[in-house]
Amino acid sequence: MSIEGKSPFQARVTKYAALADPARLRIVDLLTLGDFAPMELQAELGIPSNLLSHHLRTLEVAGLTTRHRSEADRRRSYVRLAAGALEGLVPAAEHGARRVLFVCTRNSARSQLAAALWQHVSEIPSASAGTHPADRIAEGAIEVARRHGLDLADHTPRSLDLVAGEGDFVVTVCDNAHEELTGLHGVHWSVRDPLRLGTDEAFENAFADLARRVNDLAPRVRAA
User: Fold this and answer.
1) Alpha helices in the chain (DSSP H)
2) Which of 53, 102, 117, 189 has the most crowded Cβ, counting Cβ within 10 A?
3) In angstroms, rounded to a whole number, what is the distance separating the alpha carbons of residues 32 and 13?
């Protein structure tokens, strides 16, 4: 029986039952920071793939996680927390950072928006960069930022090599950047690329996803 067919009380019971297993609780702890491919979760937990599949199915049935395909490699998928999955539950882990650095491929939309959003919710500095920066910020990103009271008009895409510094807590916000980079200290957010569709709705959806994630992460990052 899926969680959608249960009463609110029964849904809570299902979630707590799913989280009672140490491996599944560890998976959820990891997902509170960012999205993970199953192979990445397997490496973190050190368990067989069939056991990981069982845990992921249990979490999905409990309404705690969802899964979607990578935009970069369609053979790859990412697991993420479902919206509202942890209502009433507070992750305890804190992470120290000198600065939060948001990274995407072109540094023309998602990473710029995330850095601007971060500045409104945290005293810890933020910056953004791209693995292959564009010449300018996407007009759709400028417009969606303006609609939400943010100004990106004077910002310029910058290269990760020129921006990254010691003590940065790195958040990759596109699948291409995450799959290109290895060994970074930080987390990954698998945010859909609004430039693929180029519509106002696509930019609004990306903005909403980033805003929720920024608000969730900010209380868990302290100044290093």
Assistant:
1) 8-19, 22-31, 38-45, 49-61, 110-118, 139-147, 160-163, 175-180, 200-217
2) 102
3) 20
